[in-house]
Amino acid sequence: MSLPRLLVFASGTKDGGGSGFENLVTASKDGRLSAEIVAVVCNHEQGGVRERADRLGIPFIQFAGPYDAEHYQKIVKETGADFVALSGWLKLAVGLDPRTTFNIHPAPLPEFGGKNFYGMKTHEAVLEAYKEGRITHSAVSMHFVTPEFDEGPVFFSHPVEILRGDTVETLAHRVNIAEHQYQPQITDLVVHGKISWDGKDAATLSGAQITL
Fold first, then answer.
1. pLDDT of 171-189, one tens digit each?
2. Which residues are catalytic?
């Protein structure tokens, strides 16, 4: 039986990033993720994602837009992917199958999700809420993807304690460690149907693991 074919979208930066993508590749090789990673898509021609892809032997696709349904669908079709994982992808993903497209987010959802919650901005907002006494934890969240930022049903959420004296950088580092710990195993559950959604009705979500 062939393995599920997984396509990863990861923006990274012009001079770094892509650790989540590399973590998925490593997991696919050591058995934690039973899937074939067919390619990685990045909006930067060079940078952290390209460097990691070349080093790991994963096909690299530069996607510079337009970021519309036609072009997203073209990439998925050409790679033959069964599932799409957004891992630090900062563009709005449209036109993809919500049943087989999922994202990882470095904060609790829906409170800290949406268009303006990405990268360090997300951790800044979480830390501000902590200082105001509104929350005690951040989180690693995973959700299915709809045409709106971070609005698909959340199927995984694991708390990350905020420590007294945390800075944006120290909080981001601990959340990233948790992302690397859980993303491969939860991705494995999705691509093997242990976590699923019909893409329409949130009530049909099955297998969710919410620990907040």
1. 999 999 999 999 999 999 9
2. 105
